[in-house]
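Data availability excerpt. The first of two example chains:
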Amino acid sequence: MKRAFQFTILAGFLMSLTACEDWLLEPSPGLTRLEDFYSVGKTAIQNTNAAYVPLMWEFQSTYFPEWFIGDVVSDDALKGGQSIGDMADVYDMENFKTNSNNGFLLDFYRAQWQGIARCNLPLQEIAKMTPDSVMTERVQQRLLGELHFLRALYYFRLVRVFGGVPKVTEPIVSSANWQQTRASVQDIYSLIISDLEAANRGLWKKSEYSADELGRATKGAAQAMLLKAHLYTKNYADAKRWGDSIMASNEYTLVSNYADNFTLAGENGPESVFEIQFMEDPTSDYGEGYGFTRGTFTVILTRSRSSKLGGGWGFNKPTKNLYNSYEAGDPRRDATIFNPSDADIETPEQEIYLGSRYLNRKYAMMNDDKSYYTLSHPTRGPINTKVIRYADVLLMYAEAACELNQLTAAKNALEQVRSRARGTAAILPAFPYGSYADNQADLRKAIRHERRVELAMEGHRWFDLTRWGIAKETMDAYKSGESAEAQQHMAAFIKGTHELFPIPSKEIDLNPMQQNP
C-alpha cells in the first residue's frame, strides 16, 4: 500500500529537481513564470509529494534520525556504537557538551528548512490554480492541507530542539530576503497551530484515502498534532478539545497486540495516525546524502553489532534505568528492549557500551527467535517511523484532562492504554495502583510513567522531559544511578541552558541570529 505513495513521492522530488535545473538556465534569476509551471493538477500533486521527502532524510555529513535526540539525550538510552568516538557529535549531545559546530545538529536543522521551502512555494501557487480533471477542487484543498500540515511538522521539529527560529512563510526568491530575524517560541507555535487548523479544514479522514494513498497527512493527523502543540504551550483546554475530536471520529483504535505496531504488516494500521514512509531500496547512496534513499538507516543503526544478531551498528542502547521502570510482567518491556545473553555477544568491548548491553528492539526488525529480517541493502530498512500512534493520542488526552482536573476522563484514557498492554493477564491494574494515591498529583505521575513505557525508544522522552520542565531533576537522578563508567562522561545539567541545543554556527554565519544560552 505504501509503495505506490512512495513512488509518487520520489517522482515529485525528481520533478522538483528538474524544474529547479530549468530555472537555472533562465538568463535572469527570478523571471521564470511560475504560472506556466503550475498549470496542471499533476504538477500540484507531484510538488506536494516532494514536500514529504525531507521527513525521510537521515544522512548527510553524518546520520541524524531524530531519535538520537529524543531517546539518547534522555534517560532512556545511551548513544552506543563501537566506542565513545563513534558518532562523536551525539556523544557530546547526550553528555551536555554540545558546541555550535555540531555536525548532527547542522544536518538536522538544514533538512527541516528544506522541507519548509518545499511547502512554501506550492502553498503560494497551488491556491491560485484552476482545478482540472486530475486536481479537482476537493483534491486542491487536500493538497493545501497536506502542505500546511507538513510545514507545521517541520517547524515543530525545529522549535522543540532549537527554540525560536526564523519565521518564513513565503518563498525566498531574492538574496535581499535571505537573512531573517529569529522569531520567538510563541510566534513559531502560533504559526504551527494556524497551519494545523488550516490543514484540518482541508484534509481528508484516513478512511477516505484509497489503499495506495495511505501515508498522506489526514484530518486525524492534524488534530493529533493540534492536541500535541497545545500541550507544549500548556493550553490544556484546547488540547483536550482536539483530543475529543480525534477520539470521536472513530477513525483509530489500538491494535490488540502492542508489538504488531513495529512490524511491516502493522504499518499504516488502525493505530497509525501518522508515519514517515520508508520502503525497500537496494540502491546505495554512499557519499550522496540527502534524498538518495527511500529506506531508513534506523534498522541498521540500532541492530546489535554481533553478527549473530544482525550485524548492525549498535546505537540507541536502552538504559538500565528504562529497563527497570517497567512494572512486573509488562509485556511492552520485552517488545521494546532485547537483553542479549553472554552467548549472543561476540565482542563485549564493542557491544557493551558504558555498561549497557541492552538493544532497542522496536525498529531492528527482530523476530521472536532472535533472527532478523533480511535487508535488500545492507544499510537500508523498509520499516516506517511512527510519528504519532493512537496510544500517544490517548496519553496526551489523559494529560490534558488531568491538568484540567477532569480526572475521570484522564483515568479512562489512561486505562485504555494499560488495558491493551495487560491483555487477559492479571497485571498492570487500573489507576490508582502501586504507590499512586487517587489524586491529581499522582495521576499526573502515573500518566507520565505510562508515556515512558508505552512510547519508549520512539523518540519522545527527551521532549516530554523538557516540556514538563523536569529535565534537570530527572537527568540528575538518572546520572546518580548510572554506571560509574557512564557517569565519568556526563557533564552537569544546567537548568535553563541544556533544554535547547545551539543554533548551528554555520547557519549564524549565513544569517546572523542570537545564539541560545
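And the second chain:
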Amino acid sequence: MDPIYYAIYGMLLLLSVFGLKVGVSNDAANFLNSSIGCKAGSFYTVVAVAAVGVLLGASFSSGMMEVARSGVFNPRMFNFHEVMLLFLAVMISNVILLDVYNTLGLPTSTTISLVFALLGSSIGMAVYSKDIATDDAPLAAYINTSNAFAIVVAIFVSVVIAFTLGSCVMWFARLLFSFRYKRAYRYIGPLWCGSALTAITYFAIFKGLRDSSMLSDETKALLNADVGVTMAWCWVAWLVIMAFLQYVCRVNTLRIAVLSGTGALALAFAGNDLVNFIGVFMAAQTSLDIAGSYAGDVSNMMMGELAATTIQANPLYLLTAGLIMVASLFFSKNARKVTETELKLSSSNTGKERFGSSLAARVMVRYALNTARFIEKVTPRPVAEFVGRRFAPLPPEEETGTNYDLVRGSVNLTTAALLISIATSMKMPLSTTYVTFMVAMGSSLADRAWGRDSAVYRITGVLTVTGGWFLTAIGACLASFCVALVLAYGGVWAQTGMMLLALALLVRSALLSQGAKKEYRILDVSKDAQVREYGAAAAGRLGRMVGIYNAMVKALLTEDRETLKSLRKKTRSMKQDLKLVKENEVLPSLPNIPPEQADRGQLIYRIIEISLSTCECLLVLVKASYNHIDNNHTGLNKEQAKDLLALTGKIWKFYPNLTDMLKAGDFAGIDKMLEGSDQLGDDFAECITRHLTQNANDESSMRTGILYLTLLNETRAMVSHAFALIRRIMELYKG
C-alpha cells in the first residue's frame, strides 16, 4: 500500500485530536453557560460536573459513525483513493473552520460543520471521479442530500421553537416565582426541581444513553418500553428526594437541578456528538482495514463494503477521547471566550455591549415596543399591575452579582434538555448548540434582561451568532469542496503540501492560544491601592506616549519609514488598549461609586478621557509623519528641524520621571515641573506665527509646510492634554 495513505491516516488522527480540543472549546458553551451564569457553583465545580458527564458520555458513546461513513456520501461510488482524500479534505477544512469560530468567540455547530464539510468534499470528489463522457449516473448519486436537507430544515424549526418555548417557559416561571423567588421556593421548590430533574433524566436517557453501543439490546428495549410509566415513577421519586433534601437537609435543590442539567447536557454531548470529532478518523481506519484485505491495487478498489460495515468503536479510543475533552474543558481559553459571548447576551447587566447596532435589530425592537404598548392598553389594569409586581427587578442593594438567578438557570437547562430529548425520540436531527443558545436567548427576553438600552445590541448579537451558524454550513461546504479538488488534482505534492499547511496552522493556533490575554477588573474606588495603581498606569502610558513622540521626531528627520510604520502600529495599539480599559474597567465601576467617593470617580473618568485625547493627538502626528515619508515628499528644512528638536527637548524636560515621583508622593517636584508649561505654549505659538508668514511657491515646500504646521498644532494640543493629565493624576493621589 502506498505510504501516502498511512500519512493521511496519521494526519486524520492528529486532526481528530485537535478537533476534539476545538470542538469541546466551542460546544462547552452548551452545557456550562447556565451553571456559570447563575453561579450554581464555582467555575471548577461546574467544570468538574461537566467533566464527569463528558467521561460517561464518551465511554457510552452511541458510535453513530455512519454519519461520517455513509450518511452524506455513497461509498460504493468512490474508490479507496478518493475516499481517503475525501476524509482528509473534511478534517482539514472542518478543524480550521471550528478554530476560526472559537477565536472569534462565536458558538457554532460541530454537527453542521461535519455534515456540510462531508457534503462539500463529496461533491468535489464526485466532480473528480465522474467521467462526464461515459458515466450516466447523476451527480446526486454520489451524495446523500436527504440527510443534509433534513438538518437544514431542523435548524430553522429548532431556532424558532427553542426561542419561543424558552420565552414562554421563562415568563410563566418568573410569574410563578418573581425575582424574589425564595419565598415561593419554600412551598413549590420540590415540585419545580422534581419536575426539572425528571425532564433532565428523560433527556439523559433518551438523548445520551438510549442508542449507546455499550448497552445491550435487552437494556435498550427496557428503556424504550413503557416510557410514560417509567417517567411518572421517576417524577414521584425525584419529588420525594427533593422534598427530603430541601426540608430536612436544608439543601438548595435549585443548585442540584442546575448542576444535574449541566452534567446531563455534557453526557449527551459527548455520547452523541463524539462522531463529529472522531467519526471521520474511525471511518478512515475501517477503510484501511478493508483495503488491507484486498490483494490487488487498493487505490482503485471500490468502497461499497464501507457502507455495509458496522463500526465498533474501540473503548480505549472512546476513553482517550473523553480525557482529551475533559482536559479541554479545564484548560481551554477559547472555551471561556465562547461561554462569555452567550453570558453577555443573556445578562441583565448593562454596560459594555460586545455587538453593535443593526438595521434589522432596530426594526425588530421598534415593532416589539409598539406591540408591547398595544398589549398594555388592552390588558386589564389589575392583571397588568399583578404582572408588573411579579416582574419587578431587585433593587441594587439586593443584587447577587450573577448574570441571572437559579430560576432562569433551571429553565434554560430543563427546557433545552426536554426539547432535545423529544426531538431525538421523534428521530429529528437537532443541534444541541442551536437549542441551548436559543432557549437562553428566549429566557433572557422573557426575563426582561433585554431593556430598551440593550435590546438592539443583544438582538444584533443573536442575529450575528445565528447568521454565523448558517455561514458555517456554507463555509464548511465551500472550503471542503475546494480542498478536495486541490488534493485530487494536485497529486502527491498537493496532498503533502496541504498536510504541511494543516500542521503549520495547528502550530500557529497552539502558539496563539498560549498568548497572554489581558485581564481587566472593575475598579473599587474606595481602595486606595487600586486607585494609586490606576494613576500609576496612566502616568506610565503618558511616558510611553512621550517616548513614541521623541522616536517619531527622530524618524521623521532621518526619513526612517520603517520606524514610523512601527510607531504607528504601537500608537494604534495603545489607543485600543485605552478604549478597552475605559470599557472594561472605568465605565463598569462608575455606577457602583458611593456618593462620598463621587469626586474620586469623576477624576478616574477624566483621566481615561484625557489619556484617550492625548493618544489621539499622538496618532495624528505619527500618521501624518508616516504618510509624508511614505509618499516620498521632501523632508523638513534645517530651520524647521531645529525648532522641532528644540521643542521636543523642552517637552521631554517636563517628564523627567513622573512615575517615580508619584510613587514617592513628591508632588512638589510635579508642581515645579508644571510651572513652565505656560512658557512652552508661548514657544509653540511663536513657531507657528513665524512659519505662517513664510510662503513657498513650489508644491513640495507647501506640502512640507502643511506637515510642519500639523506637527506644531497637534503637538501643542497633545502637550496641553498631557499637562491636564498630570494635574488630574496628582489630584487623584492627593485625594
